[in-house]
Amino acid sequence: MSDRLTVLKTYKLYVGGKFPRSESGRVYEVTDAKGRWLANAPLSSRKDARDAVVAARKAFGAWSGATAYNRGQVLYRVAEMLEGRRDQFVREVADAEGLSKSRSAAVVDATIDRWVWYAGWTDKIAQVVGGGNPVAGPFFNLSSPEPTGVVAVLAPQESSFLGLVSVLAPVIATGNTAVVVASEKSPLPALSLAEVLATSDVPGGVVNVLSGRTAEIATPLASHQDVNAIDLAGADEELAKDLEIAAADNLKRVLRPQPVDYAETPGIDRMTAFLETKTVWHPTGSLGASGSSY
Amino acid sequence: MPSTALTAAHPLKDVAASDSSLRRFLHGLPGVDAVGLEGRAASLGTRSIKTTAKAYAIDLAISMVDLTTLEGADTPGKVRALGAKAVNPDPTDRTAPSTAAVCVYPDMVPVAKEAVAGSGVKVASVATAFPAGRAPIGVKLADVREAVAAGADEIDMVIDRGAFLAGRYLKVYDEITAVKEACGTSARLKVIFETGELSTYDNIRRASWLGMLAGADFIKTSTGKVAVNATPANTLLMLEAVRDFRAQTGIQVGVKPAGGIRTSKDAVKFLVLVNETAGEDWLDNHWFRFGASSLLNDLLMQRQKLATGRYSGPDYVTVD
Amino acid sequence: MASAFEYAPAPESRSVVDIAPSYGLFIDGEFTEAAGGKVFKTVSPSTEEVLSEIAQAGAEDVDRAVRAARGAFGKWSALPGSERAKYLFRIARIIQERSRELAVLETLDNGKPIKETRDADLPLVAAHFFYYAGWADKLGHAGFGADPQPLGVAGQVIPWNFPLLMLAWKIAPALATGNTVVLKPAETTPLSALFFADICRQAGLPKGVVNILPGYGDTGAALVAHPDVNKVAFTGSTAVGKEIARTVAGTRKKLTLELGGKGANIVFDDAPVDQAVEGIVNGIFFNQGQVCCAGSRLLVQESIQEELLESLKRRLSTLRLGDPLDKNTDIGAINSEEQLTRITSLVEQGEAEGAERWSPACELPESGYWFAPTLFTNVTQAHRIARDEIFGPVLSVLTFRTPDEAVAKANNTQYGLSAGIWTEKGSRILAVANKLRAGVVWSNTFNKFDPTSPFGGYKESGFGREGGRHGLEAYLDV
């Protein structure tokens, strides 16, 4: 054991590809499972939430317009970066969730694998949920999924890393941009994930990470008219109801909280929850039926 | 009456300066969406024309018929019978209107002329090596001149579809202007595109404008000699063309669907197309014709039914 | 249209439909009085003639109907899919057999032209039942797991613009997936739903599987709020849709909403002009513009504005407004006095805001609710008539200069249901379609519908899809 004093990290928010402090200047104390001080995390305000939405909206055009292959490459790059920081996350998750080193390592491995799983989905989901429709007429008719827009994601409170990635990755894999509210009690893995995103090829604004009081940040997000959807995974029953009511103001797509075992391989529901279906029609002409016909 | 040809000074005359300028103009016309066009034609086909409207439409349709015989087996006797029928379509009812014209091959023009003499029924003659049009231009023009000299009031020419499909629009244009000149001032010129061979609606729109630019008095769908002749859709398209041409130039051009129109119901549908596309200015046999033979008898039977309330039968109309 | 060729009246015979002087609620396979004894009248909007007196369901009736549906759910959901399929096939066939009767009925109660009920509504209604009938025994192949389960009792509230078609969109997928249904038709158009109840009887559908509760907004609200409803499906206004979303918040009720729109019909300078004109007319004057996916904003490229407007005005002059039962009528009556008032008020605002109003010469009948086809030019994005859903035969014309501007203007709305693109350039269609934030994009056509084709909105036009494989999801526990 060396007696060198370690250099502590100042955890910051991640908004628009930058690492600002909360505009409120507030922080709150984050402790480990045993109550020992780990760090001071930014206590985000309504204004931070608003800035994050602006950044997410700004990033939406390019991210949703990127090719699915490109999004897959970018997300896979994130997994590579995560792998490189594996030890850091094992430590952070162990601290946050009170896990043993080996249990924490298993969680981190599962998380990285989860990220790879979603990276592979980017260019497949359209084939699974979209397709041609055999309409009764001379028309080409194609339904394709499209990202719904800016999604507010309330990360699960307990599963600070695997749960986080399990709700975030499906949102951005399909081309949405996200404003993530980290686990209130255990925000550090989320804030560190932001550092990974910043050093991989994810464009700034695609993912924005806020830490603080979930209810305080989620309320302005749920009522924000430029947010298209909200995942309530990290809200308790009472908060979820209030947020769902607020979300009705602009008819956000709402994914209600439900019991999830994040260790299990997910289905595609978390992707389809934030996909729109666009159906495009075009006449085909009617070959030969009436002579001159196309 | 509107003037019948573009003056040399008209800006649209310039488009025929060369093959390429003509191509640029014709390919610059708005495209045609086939499904939309056919949908519109079908939708107008659901108009329900009853009682007084039907009586009006049937008489109008009879008056628009170019009663046609274009067979190798045509004889003077057959043509005389046709002429008599054109003048008095229903021997039992003299209130039935005459048809617009009889339409025959050039060698039958003198016979037809005599058969309809004094009636107001016109004699139309196909010419220009009808129906294929595959003859040297000199032969085609001679064909026209003979028919006109024999007294034809109207000449139904065919365009050179081969040249059109090969993109040699100026050749088609020049032929039409030459035929127009051969028609002189006495005969009106109907230009047949053989739409069934042009294959696309875009081509039919281009051919329509080409024909009108070159001086056609009528644009006509087909010869009646190929698989697909007049259809509601191609006629609708040509009606749009004459409507737009008049809006742009002030010149009114007639339309003649020919071939395949056999029943009164069909004929009335075409009149609805005329009414709701080109408008009532075209609801006159100076501007709209049906090229048909068996249609007339069906119109007459329907006319009898409307007059008497009984369904008629083929024994009560004349066999041609 | 004064023409030598005047079309004589060609009315469809009213005698093919026999409307009873009064109708009850349809609960558990029986027609019954409302518990509170309340009734309301339904009138023919083209004449204001009272067609029938209808029982008005209250909260107690809602409860009774939900209990009936709950009671029927166990057996119905346990039936083999192939058996449920056959019931739906029967219903589809009976609708085809009775389509003339239903078309006349719908025209009488709604005011829309017989041409539309005959050629659009009824064929689509039957097709929708046929389509979902076939799904009933193939749900394991629909991509929702090997054995997807129904939700339970579906509470469905439908609008007055396509009464029977909206019923079909709601009931067919609900029954195919094994749910039972309580459906509230709109107060101005309850009749076709009540005739549908009779079709269920003819088809031998088990009692309680379909329940029909005519009534006003409060009936719908009670249905949506009923604690034993598992699924809520609503088609109607965005304002009511938001209210419903608040009502179901915090429950396990699954919700789908199909709401308003302000569809942009974008016409580029290389459009197939004659078909574009037809598409514009069909887009905004079909069903008197009372269509959520109407192309109510015409975005035309500046370079062809004059030419296009001239063609459009000429075409509008040929529209035939009048007796909806006349087979030649293109424009029928507005559905209700209330709707007419709303249209009138928005149009007056459009004029007050400086837009230029034009209508073809058009005589309106003396009685009934009528509004002439109307076109506004000099409209800007800031005008209310460019933003609010008018739900009437009123077209706002705006211009653009570049494709980017067209897309930006088209998307500049809280809605996102439909859009149209007219151009002969294929790549432009695909590029623009890709950028439009709308659930249905019609290119070189407009207002086309098909049971296989998913329909539904982005943004405040609602969520969930109706039609196609996608339409099953709304009624499955997935």
UniProtKB/TrEMBL annotation, chain A:
Name its species: Streptomyces djakartensis
Superkingdom of this protein's organism: Bacteria
PANTHER family reported for this sequence: ALDEHYDE DEHYDROGENASE-RELATED
Q: Where is the Aldehyde dehydrogenase domain?
A: 23-254
Question: What is the protein's given name?
Answer: Aldehyde dehydrogenase
Pfam families noted in UniProt: Aldedh
Q: Which InterPro entries match?
A: Ald_DH/histidinol_DH, Ald_DH_N, Aldehyde_DH_dom
Please indicate if the UniProt record lists Oxidoreductase as a keyword.
Answer: yes
Q: Which UniProt keywords apply?
A: Oxidoreductase
Automatic annotation (TrEMBL), chain B:
Q: What is its EC number?
A: 4.1.2.4
Protein's UniProt keywords contain DNA repair: no
Q: Which reaction does it catalyse?
A: 2-deoxy-D-ribose 5-phosphate = D-glyceraldehyde 3-phosphate + acetaldehyde
| Domain of life of the native organism | Bacteria
**Cited Gene3D superfamilies:** Aldolase class I
* Keywords noted in UniProt: Lyase, Schiff base
Q: Which pathway does it operate in?
A: Carbohydrate degradation; 2-deoxy-D-ribose 1-phosphate degradation; D-glyceraldehyde 3-phosphate and acetaldehyde from 2-deoxy-alpha-D-ribose 1-phosphate: step 2/2
Entries under CDD domains matching the protein? DeoC
Q: Which family does it belong to?
A: Belongs to the DeoC/FbaB aldolase family. DeoC type 2 subfamily.
Supply the name of the protein: Deoxyribose-phosphate aldolase
Supply the source organism for this entry: Streptomyces djakartensis
From TrEMBL, chain C:
Record keywords = Oxidoreductase
Q: Which InterPro entries match?
A: Ald_DH/histidinol_DH, Ald_DH_C, Ald_DH_CS_CYS, Ald_DH_N, Aldehyde_DH_dom
Domain named Aldehyde dehydrogenase is located at 32-477
**Protein name per the record:** Aldehyde dehydrogenase
- Report the source organism: Streptomyces djakartensis
Using the record, list the residue span of the signal peptide; answer none if the entry has no such feature: none
